[in-house]
Amino acid sequence: MTNMIAPYRIPVYENIAAEFDTTILYSGQESNRSKWDGILAQLKNARARQAWGLTFKRRKRAERELEAQGIFDYQFIHITPGYLVDLARIRPRAIIANEMGFRALAALFYGTVARVPVWIWWGGTLHTERSVGRLRKIVRGIVKRWAKRWISYGQTSTDYLESIGVNRDRILQIQNCVDETRYSDTVEPSENWTPKPVVLHVGQLIARKGIMPMLTAAVEVQRNGAEFSLVLVGDGPDRALLEQQVKDLGLKNVVFAGARKPSDMPAVYRSADCLVFPTLEDVWGLVANEAILCGLPVVASKFAGCSPELFDAEQVFDPTDPVDFARVFKLIVEGKVPPADRSKLKTTAEVAEMIVTDVRRAMGQ
After folding, report:
1. Burial letters 172-197, b for 16+ CB under 10 A, else e
2. Which of 70, 82, 174, 349: CA 20 to 30 A from 223?
3. CB count in 10 Å sphere of residue 59
4. What share of the chain is helix, strand, coil (3-state, %, to 5)?
5. CA distances for 299 relative to 200, 276, 278, 305, angstroms
6. How far apart are CA 78 and CA 256, in angstroms?
């Protein structure tokens, strides 16, 4: 049970479906995922069914200085009563529900009535959940007491679950992952951006991705004589504002490359020399996985959930500290950051096997 079917989850779903008769119930799509069309056609073993419900879009809280600049991020809230109807029709023997909201409550209610095990698949970190409102805290308190089994994205999401009182022995800690087979093949670069080196940013053009402080760090390094291209792959509501910021700063050789389809990204990564991931808030950050698989050096924000698990200390920086950001940006432009350790990544097959094993154990198989 999930809000939407993401392309990076397809291999995990398919591996699980190779072991169990699997149906994916989803509540819909979100307007900020314009390049995710055609995802359902990639499912070969698992079935997908859209449950009836409503999706609401609301503006997230922003830091005061970001609001003053007109920079906002949005959150999508899914209320999907149809989950209960579909669960009654499917009559599953095990349920995995993403996150701790209405979806989790529906899964836990059905699981209690039907006496089937339920897992809550969770990704939030201590940082991303630092400003949770009162209603969400109430709902999470109910879910925490009700749920007996959990799946976490990685160490940082496990840390959050433990902080709210979930016992560690109830948490299956996996790792957020992408389809490594998509990036393992030799793919020719699709672009020839100049001058070199090419510093790449991949993500939505929204406030929490940390693009504003990245531009400030880039111009500081450029003013000290460094020459490079800064390429932003992605789109979003802040594009015009960011383009104006580039002009105001006098930053040269910046390319707004727009959003690309997931299938195009391996060739895009191989057109760059390094990836900067300056997020101010991300539960994981799968662009880091993708860049690692393509052999790129990566520097990542300390606010990314993946950072302590995938990167050494010298590859992690504070995007809110202009001095630290400029320092690490200079290092990556100078080619002094080595490629990240690929062995730290779990494969989609390994992640699926961990889930399958836990489900079999709960079902007594």
Report:
1. bbbbbbbbbebbeeebeeebebeeeb
2. 70
3. 10
4. 40, 20, 40
5. 11, 5, 8, 13
6. 31
Would you call 297 exposed, middle or buried from its count of C-beta atoms within 10 A (0-12, 13-18, 19+)?
buried
Please report, as a single letter, which amino acid is at residue 211: I
Number of Cβ atoms within 10 Å of the Cβ of 216: 17
Task: State the Cα torsion 25-110-160-276 to the nearest 10°.
Answer: 0
**Whole-angstrom Cα distance, residue 126 to residue 312?**
20
Ordered strands of the 298-301 beta sheet: 254-258, 229-233, 198-202, 274-277, 298-301, 316-317
According to DSSP, the β-strands at 74-79 and 54-59 are antiparallel
For the chain, 365 residues long, give each residue's pLDDT as a single digit of tens.
998 898 889 999 999 999 999 999 998 654 444 455 677 888 999 999 999 877 655 555 544 444 444 444 555 565 778 999 999 999 999 999 999 999 999 999 999 999 999 999 999 999 999 999 999 999 999 999 999 999 999 999 999 999 999 999 999 999 999 999 988 777 899 999 999 999 999 999 999 999 999 999 999 999 999 999 999 999 999 999 999 999 999 999 999 999 998 889 999 999 999 999 999 999 999 999 999 999 999 999 999 999 999 999 999 999 999 999 999 999 999 999 999 899 999 999 999 999 999 999 999 87
Tokens 């999470």 map to which residue? 140
